[in-house]
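ok trying again, last paste got cut off:
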Amino acid sequence: MKKFTGLLLFLLAGMLFAETIDVTKSEGTNQSIITSLTPAPASPEVDANITVEAVFNEALNPMSTMHSVTLKHITGKKKRWGMFGFGISRSKNKTIQGSITYDQNENTLYFTPDQPLEVGFYKVSFRHLMKKVPGMHMRIKPIVYHFYVPEVINGFKLPPEPDEDKNNATLLGIDFNHNGIRDDVERWIIIHYANDLKYPKTKTAIALQYAWASQKILENPTMESKKYLDDAIDCQYYWFHTKTQNMSGFEAGQFHAKNKVFNDPILKDKIYNNRERIEQKFRFNAALSGNIFDGRNESIENCRTNIDELGE
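nice, full thing came through this time. structure:
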């Protein structure tokens, strides 16, 4: 009975295990006949109103293009375990309705969805295409790849929630959209500061720059990385100066205290959330210890995002 119970628990655990979607997985995307693919394979930040395009350097048989493109929204992926321990992956896909057109002058195949795409992972497939060769049927190999449509909050694109174990298994964690900020930190910043009633965009931009600088410090905890943190701090103080230049000293002090981003202990705890990352921060502090630094002038040039253009 105990053995049976153990086996049952093992099977249930396998059924509940969610497998991460590999957006880099593709097929046939490097064929010489392909000039370009839009969105590009493994794109992490695709607009919801995208039209899928494939440009070829040779003409296609128009008849072969009529039902050649499918776009599927991957709404879930589960791994189930068979009775003999074999893993079986099952994807939950929603086929996206849309129209297919082929421009013979430009050798370009289009798939236009009927509706804006929802947030999530997508798989696009081009199949059964043939070159336009008189008297011959020269089939093109299938073209299959994935991309991701992110949620957009105040103009900032939210990466997907990373797997916690994988994200914390390495020093730098997961950076799905390759912008230099760990995904769990980026998500927290965008969602958290969206609740700010007056300056959600500005605080998000400054906090993201701080997180980007902190990632640089984790990667290289030396004096050379100090400039990134200095720029982030100076960007914040440039914003403070811009907003408080017509205030009294008391009002300016209140504004500073209320709107500081870098003093948020939750943000710092989110960035330095395990022993390895905390130790890297200590190494950075040790590298700076005992040095005397010159003052700096705050300007918009210190900001990675032009906060003057955010409309706040």
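cool. Residues 11-149 form a domain with the Immunoglobulin-like fold (CATH 2.60.40.1220). The helical segments are 2-16, 164-167, 183-193, 200-219, 226-244, 249-259, 265-271, 275-288.
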